[in-house]
Amino acid sequence: MLAQLYRLPWPEPAAARKEILEALQAFRAAPFEPSDVHIPTGEGDRPPPPTVNPELEEQCRQERAQWDADVQLALRACLADAEADGCRLEALEFDKDDTVNGHIDFVTAASNLRARNYGIPEADKMHTKRVSGRIIPAMITTTALITGFVGLQAYKLALKKAAASFRNVYVNLAIPCIIPSEPAPPPQIPYLPAAPMAASSSSLGAPTAPGPEADPLAGRCFTLWDRLELNCARDVTLAQFL
């Protein structure tokens, strides 16, 4: 099916089945070896917290940023090459009545593998054929439509398009109605500082309250897309954090 999708030559079903059986018979899985990982079972069994190396963390952060940049460059190069070569995917239409396209065979094998994992009774090809004929119309409408719109926005993100090119899409297939719109800015949520502590007495006896410089977040607003990075120990508890 992947070969048909990418317009590649593919063998006949009988020859492909023979090659797959030979490959499976020759495959030998490596024996399972448990990893040497210590799992604490109580407070007294907890290992000491790992030491944090700021230089190593900064190096890892730079490597991740470089890796992300390399992936984006490779993706843009692949998209440009595919467009220049005129590469086009061939859409495959699901046909449960075709006995040689392998569609029902694939669905039956995939569903039976999942059923075997969870101890569910497996189904034969005829049962899969009857069930798939009822659920496919629902799968190829809303799910495929939403996935396609999400994929379009992912391409824009990979190609570093301007923020104005992104779209939200409202879909109602019962009407039918498809309305794209520009994303609205996220609502600003003002920061609410904690209740002030009891006023302390200065050397002159007059009470003093903590100034605004005591809280670096005072007067700021946040959105649901913002985040705070905390440089603290990995095993800090909620009480210690507060």
UniProtKB/TrEMBL annotation:
Stretches assigned to the Ubiquitin-activating enzyme SCCH domain: 2-129
Residues spanning the signal sequence: none
GO MF annotations in UniProt: ubiquitin-like modifier activating enzyme activity
Coiled coil: none
Pathway: Protein modification; protein ubiquitination
Pfam family, one: UBA_E1_SCCH
InterPro entries noted in UniProt: UBA_E1_SCCH (IPR019572), Ubi_acti_E1_SCCH (IPR042063), Ubiquitin-activating_enz (IPR035985)
Disordered as annotated region, ranges: 34-55
Protein family: Belongs to the ubiquitin-activating E1 family.
Protein name: Ubiquitin-activating enzyme SCCH domain-containing protein
